[in-house]
Amino acid sequence: MKTFLNLFKLRIGIVIALTAVTGIAVTPGPRPTIWQSLVLALSVLVASAAAGAFNQYAERDLDARMRRTRARPFVSGSLRHGRHWLALIVLMIVAAVGSAALAVNPLAALYVFLGAFFYAVVYTVWLKRRTWLNIVIGGLAGSFAVLAGAASVSVELTAEALAFAFVLFLWTPPHFWSLAIAFQDDYRAAGVPMLPVLVGESRSARVIFWNSVLLVAASLLPAFYSLGAVYLVGAVAGGAYLLVKSVALVRAPNRATAMANFHATLVQLSLLLFAALIDAGVRD
Length: 284
Known about the structure:
Elements lengths: L1 H6 L2 H17 L7 H25 L1 H5 L8 H4 L6 H21 L2 H22 L6 H5 L1 H12 L7 H24 L1 H7 L4 H25 L9 H23 L3 H29 L1
Helix pairs in contact: 2-3, 2-9, 2-14, 3-6, 3-7, 6-7, 7-9, 9-10, 10-11, 10-12, 10-14, 12-13, 13-14
């Protein structure tokens, strides 16, 4: 079981599915039925899992050079690397996109597909080995999950949906760059041009801090639309915690503070999503 949790990156997949549910909750309009919401969330989860498996399939050579990833299934040999995995990945994508189209609508299905495509192809194949912007542009993968949820309520892009998609876009760089500071030797050994490898810990820490400032500011935007006090409390609390950790990273850019900031991004996003869901539930 642990092998497949690792291969399909199900932990992050669950978070991405939760962002789709949040997209449903924050978008004004008639809610989809419970079964439609469940199918959409599962579709996002399956598409994310397929993209995660493709990432490990395509990066077996990189993973073998990094201490953090040497235990991944295709590197350790616990799973045999072969084209049959590509067939399974394509089948999962087709099933996920088809289910979203049938249960919800074609626009939601398109966003489900784009989320997987941006992570598997745009980030993994086209950008990761070429540019430090890899994770910036690749961050759109999470944004599409929000838009998939929103599309199940309204086919028109609402301010709330765009605001949350923007938050997810801004969240990804400080999350992964913090990890890249902690494991910069791994990325350097693998030849991956992550920001800390190119500009060092101190400059990367300052970029992370200012990115986090922009992220926290953007996370307050939905409170000016249909979301209320519960959401605002979650956004302020999570944002304040992240900024405290980001300041600590700037003052002492090292592995410990980088990992603390990495975990703070998870806390901030979790508070944001749950606050949005609770706020929407209270309003309904």
